[in-house]
Amino acid sequence: MFIHGKRFMPAVLAALLLLCGWLIPYSSAAQNKAVDTLYMDHSPKKANLWAIIPGGGQIYNKKYWKLPIVYAGFGVIGYFAVANRSEYLKYHDAYICSATLGDQCEDPLAQKYSTDDLKTIRDYYRRNTELSFIAGAAWYILQMLDAVVDAHLYYWNVSENLSLKVEPALSPVYGMPSKLPEVQAPVNGIKITVKF
Description:
Layout: H1 5-23, H2 33-40, H3 44-50, H4 56-60, H5 67-101, H6 108-112, H7 115-152, E1 163-171, E2 187-195
Antiparallel strand pairs: 1-2
Helix pairs in contact: 3-7, 5-7
């Protein structure tokens, strides 16, 4: 059953407010330490629930610098979806007019292009509109995955003692005969040292 705009928007807003109220961690000064640590844990499940709202998972993970990237992606994809949909409707109307009325159609696009060309252009914009919607869904899922993976790595210990050192090295070759038995020529190589 389709819900019209006047009844639909308050229902959506109420659902979002309930969801946000449920996701916001509750803490009180009167609570004991065990309950406080329960709400202080950084949970990938909570990050996933927050990510239902675009950018919410990034806010939950305190990665505020990712918000412009998330919203820019949605903005660009939304722009292309709306632009392609608008062009599709314009060429669809011209195609219908041209196919039904023929030369009597007064649509400027129908006068400019043939019926076959209008169908080809209409199908092109329909394909691009559908691809925009698919890209939007993929971007939505990607921002959710980013939030969950970032929540998993939230307590990842990156110590100052970790290091990777790459340098050139000369190594002697053992067991390989040389032209002169008393001279072993070293071999050029790379030495990689990892410190934990």
